[in-house]
């Protein structure tokens, strides 16, 4: 039940299974833990030792028998905080190193929902206005709702402005996106709707494949181009299209 979450926090699969088994069993011996967790007995010992090192389990002796029990799950939150503090201390130097080796122009792609989240992080990182061409309201995809609440809050705190050129269909099919993103926005003429979208922000131009009104395809794909010259050019294209579309009242 909790194995996937525990793995995301940093536990191995066996550690996650053993810790979850301990939560159900309370205090138990290795044999009972092995049966409950479906982890081989010899691997249970290794996982228990690692859990003890991480402060998630403890061992006791009762009538010459070694027993193990879980530590309060609150410890998991402490582990996350410890890792965040450690990351924050090294992050400035890591970012300097990363920036020092980046070429002036780059091309790569993001794939899937996690890739889409990487694209959103680029927006926060750049802290620049975002120009959307052929916007599809795919931020309404159910898989993004929890993440987007935090993203939009941080976006507003950073003062990042959104300027949308939506596909014509969005006006009738997904009008709720208009309140979410806010003005300014305009709509492309109906004959110019397409199955793609382009976003421009900072030095980035991001092209989307696998989008439709209100949702992303199962494995969305984003092509990312980083080039100041290219981004400046696309912003001019955007302005031309913007000026050609009627302002929404």
List its traits:
two-stranded antiparallel ribbon, 10 helices, 249 residues, 2 domains, Arc Repressor Mutant, subunit A, Endonuclease, Chain A, alpha+beta, 49% helix, 7-stranded mixed β-sheet
Question: What's this entry about, in short?
Answer:
The protein has helices at residues 3-9, 13-25, 30-37, 41-53, 74-100, 112-126, 145-157, 170-173, 176-181, 228-244; strands spanning 57-62, 65-70, 106-111, 130-135, 162-166, 185-187, 196-201, 204-212, 215-226. It is α+β, with helices and mostly antiparallel strands and 249 residues long.
Instruction: Give the strand order, joined by hyphens, for the main sheet.
Output: 3-9-8-7-4-5-6
**CATH fold node name of the largest domain:** Endonuclease, Chain A
Measured as a percent range, the helix fraction is 40-55%
Major sheet summary line = 7 strands, mixed
Shape: elongated
Kindly estimate the percentage of residues that lie in beta strands according to DSSP. 15-25%
Q: Any idea how many domains?
A: 2
CATH class assignment of the largest domain: Alpha Beta
Mean pLDDT: 88
Global Rg: 25 Å
Put simply, the count of helices is: 10
Please state the second-level CATH architecture of the largest domain: 2-Layer Sandwich
The span between the termini is 50 Å
What's the CATH superfamily of the largest domain, by name?
Endonuclease Chain A
Q: Please count the beta strands (DSSP E, at least 2 residues each).
A: 9
Structure classification? alpha+beta
SSE pattern = HHHHEEHEHEHEHHEEEEH
SSE arrangement:
Layout lengths: L2 H7 L3 H13 L4 H8 L3 H13 L3 E6 L2 E6 L3 H27 L5 E6 H15 L3 E6 L9 H13 L4 E5 L3 H4 L2 H6 L3 E3 L8 E6 L2 E9 L2 E12 L1 H17 L5
Parallel strand pairs: 4-5, 5-6
Antiparallel strand pairs: 1-2, 3-9, 4-7, 7-8, 8-9
């Amino acid at each position: 039940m909790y194995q996937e979450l525990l793995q995301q926090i940093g536990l191995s699969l066996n550690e996650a299974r053993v810790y979850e088994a301990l939560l159900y069993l309370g205090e138990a011996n290795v044999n009972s833990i092995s049966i409950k967790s479906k982890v081989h007995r010899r691997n249970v010992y290794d996982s228990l030792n690692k859990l003890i090192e991480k402060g998630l389990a403890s061992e006791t002796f009762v009538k010459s028998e070694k027993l193990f029990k879980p530590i309060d799950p609150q410890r998991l939150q402490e582990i996350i905080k410890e890792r965040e503090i450690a990351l924050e201390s090294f992050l400035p130097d890591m970012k300097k190193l990363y920036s020092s080796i980046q070429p002036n122009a780059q091309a790569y792609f993001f794939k899937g929902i996690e890739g889409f989240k990487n694209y959103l992080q680029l927006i926060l990182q750049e802290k620049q206005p975002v120009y959307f061409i052929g916007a599809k309201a795919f931020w309404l995809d159910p898989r993004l709702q929890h993440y987007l609440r935090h993203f939009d809050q941080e976006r507003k705190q950073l003062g990042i402005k959104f300027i949308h050129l939506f596909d014509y269909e969005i006006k009738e099919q997904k009008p709720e996106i208009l309140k979410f993103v806010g003005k300014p926005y305009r709509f492309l003429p109906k004959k110019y709707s397409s199955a793609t979208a382009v976003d421009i922000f900072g030095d980035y131009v991001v092209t989307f494949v696998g989008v439709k009104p209100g949702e992303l395809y199962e494995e969305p794909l984003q092509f990312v181009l980083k080039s100041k010259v290219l981004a400046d050019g696309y912003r001019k294209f955007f302005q031309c299209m913007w000026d050609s579309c009627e302002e929404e009242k």
